[in-house]
Amino acid sequence: MKITQLRNATMVIHAGEHTILVDPMFAPKASIPSIKYLTTQRRRNPLVDMPEETEEILSQVTHCLITHCQKGHFDHLDRAGVRWLRENKIPVFCSSHDAAFLSKKGLEVHVLNPGQKNVFLNGSIDLIPCIHGEGIMGKFMEHGTGFVIQLPDEPSLYITGDTLLSNDVRHCISTHQPDYIVLPAGGARFDIGGDIIMGQEEALQAAEISRGHIIANHLEALDHCPVSRQSLRDQVKLRNWQKRFHIPNDGETLSLTG
Predict the structure, then answer these.
(1) Under 8 Å CB-to-CB from 54, ≥6 apart: which residues?
(2) Is the peptide bond before 46 cis (omega within 30 degrees of 0)?
(3) I need a labelling partner for 142 at 20 to 30 A (CA). Which of 134, 188, 243, 248 fits?
(4) 15-53 exposure pattern, b = at least 16 Cβ within 10 A, e = fewer
């Protein structure tokens, strides 16, 4: 298995004959307004372009996974992403909560149900609830789901989705001990309220619970995510975790071994 980080939460999983696109946000750089308003340094989103090799990588995609997409979460599925999925007739797997929403966009939807082990490709997938912010901001967010993927002869993979380090996430990590965990580490927040995804501190706490590898994303692509790759790398180095805590650049491919 390999994972290619494209941008933000958008990545591609290469697993045998299957190539799985996750949370496609394909908008060009600076084509979307700033998410932060109460600042003198407003920046349009996304902050960076997609990697040069994106088109070649996408030509291999056979399936798509969506962690969440309603209530304006363009950073996990934007108009360009919907159009690409529809034009290329890519089967889209999502939670039962998002199925009708995505079907109305003309996509081929395959439903994944919470609370049970779902058949996925030639393996299985379990859904883990997300807490995409708490308090006032949490009431306005779409909380979505994470995925624990198990495919034959491949390492187990937990894609947490956009979430804080909740009790459900802690339980999943400590109980399943996935070989690899992809988690957000950008610490996104709006002008009011606290973080709506894991930031640097919680990403490091997750690594303390896990005996496996961590892959951090949701970094340096949106204006409301303050954590930098370098800051996170500095903390990883202090803990001597360089061999198990990965912070890929956009366009970088990681090889995953069991």
Answers:
(1) 6, 251
(2) yes
(3) 248
(4) beebbbbbbbbbbeeeebebbbeeeeeeeebbbeebbee
Average pLDDT across the chain, whole number: 91
CATH of domain 2-248: 3.60.15.10
Specify the amino acid at residue 76.
Answer: H
Cβ-contact 11, 3 below 8 angstroms: yes
pLDDT under 70: residue ranges of the chain:
36-40, 71-73, 132-143, 190-193, 258
CA distances from 123 to 144, 153, 175, 184, 222 (A): 22, 10, 19, 25, 33
**Separation CA 81–CA 70 (nearest Å):** 14
Which residues make Cβ contacts (< 8 Å) with residue 80, sequence separation at least 6?
Answer: 24, 25, 26, 27
Domain spans, the chain: 2-248
Neighbouring CB atoms inside 10 A of 91's CB total 12
Taking the C-alpha atoms of residue 121 and residue 117, their distance in angstroms, rounded to an integer, is: 13
Task: Specify the pLDDT at position 39.
Answer: 59
Q: Write the single-letter amino acid at 172.
A: C
